[in-house]
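Record format v2
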Amino acid sequence: QKEVEQNSGPLSVPEGAIASLNCTYSDRGSQSFFWYRQYSGKSPELIMFIYSNGDKEDGRFTAQLNKASQYVSLLIRDSQPSDSATYLCAVDNTDKLIFGTGTRLQVFP
Amino acid sequence: SQTIHQWPATLVQPVGSPLSLECTVEGTSNPNLYWYRQAAGRGLQLLFYSVGIGQISSEVPQNLSASRPQDRQFILSSKKLLLSDSGFYLCAWSVAKLNTGELFFGEGSRLTVL
């Protein structure tokens, strides 16, 4: 069973701080990695995807991928209360995505 | 533009009753289609996916089934619901060859089995 693991949290950070979210995966053959944000009671929405080792930046978000160590991370700079949500890591497996259980982020004023 | 519709949004069903959740996608052809379930406080569990009409792959053995009678229609069914079937059911679509794209989710169907 291919797995994606995340710390469930909650991760609490003050407004303006950097939030760091981590994810590990078991399938070395995975090529594509995704971060989704899910507000309570809502559907997940894509924040970022990354295919290559290294960093990928998009506004306040940076995704980091290390295939040798099989981990993906998401950094959120200048965290805002509106960033409070559950962040789901997803890894491709042929025609489907395997999701982690998510990390709940709380940003307090 | 592409849209995905999923219904019903909320339902409360007794144990042993049947279930039918429906999902349709507009604005695209030959999408990959998926049913996920999210139990309270848990992550997204892939239940079924389909890469074409009549092609269904099951990820988790259970009392649920899925069908794809048309290119952009995906149906999740059960003949007899269990308490453990309660959860938030999400339909999603993607373009073919998933690793070049993302999943687009419907609004979800919240099922409570009593």
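The first strand of chain A starts at residue 4 and ends at 5.
The interface with chain B takes residues 6, 31-32, 34, 36, 42-46, 49, 51, 88, 90, 92, 94-102 of chain A (CB under 8 Å).
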